[in-house]
Write a structure and sequence with these properties.
The protein has about 180 residues and is mainly alpha-helical. The protein folds into two domains: about 80 residues; about 100 residues, no CATH class. About 85% of the residues lie in helices and about 0% in strands.
Length: about 180
């Protein structure tokens, strides 16, 4: 959860800074916070390609927004990221077992370290559940991307609410998978 909060921190910083500063300064502050988040996250978890893409979009769209003097370009970052994640997950679903399944050995290792013996868990069930959850999260990513495209034209408040909508959307989707199979 902490990594998600760090990931949305530049967005909140932009919205708050935009109240007190000019657009250009708010974007620069947000990019600076994004860079700090990138370094902190990488120090603890390593450089994840998605993390680099996230910051690259923040930085690139921030520069475009500053150059064109239009914050809407900066506000497109979450939409583009959501569409990109949806495309990546869809690619893995079509051409392999799915993206999240690749993390199953890591989950097994973590559970074994924390619980002692995780061998009693039904790993086939867990793998199938991960595949089902991922199938549901793909359209959620595209829905969130569409929400963020709409919100980029609106106030910062609606834009932040749009950004935060991803968590409840994912929660509802995962809950539906486990309740209805």
């Amino acid at each position: 959860m902490i990594w998600f909060l760090l990931g949305i921190l530049p967005i909140f910083v932009f919205a708050i800074a935009d109240i007190f500063l000019a657009d250009k300064q708010a974007i620069i502050v947000s990019i600076g916070v994004g860079f700090i988040v990138l370094i902190i996250t990488a120090a603890f978890t390593g450089f994840d390609p998605l993390l680099l893409i996230d910051f690259g979009l923040l930085f690139g769209l921030g520069l475009i927004a500053i150059k064109l003097e239009n914050t809407r370009f900066f506000k497109l970052q979450p939409a583009i990221l959501s569409f990109l994640i949806g495309i990546i997950l869809l690619f893995y679903q079509v051409f392999s077992d799915g993206y999240m399944v690749h993390f199953l050995p890591l989950v097994k290792q973590m559970l074994t370290e924390q619980m002692g013996n995780a061998a009693h868990l039904d790993w086939d069930y867990l793998k199938n559940s991960m595949i089902q959850v991922e199938k549901i999260i793909i359209p959620v990513c595209f829905l969130h991307g569409a929400i963020m495209l709409w919100a980029a034209k609106k106030s910062n408040k609606k834009w932040i609410l749009g950004k935060l909508s991803f968590i409840p959307l994912c929660f509802i989707a995962v809950l539906a998978v486990f309740m209805f199979g």
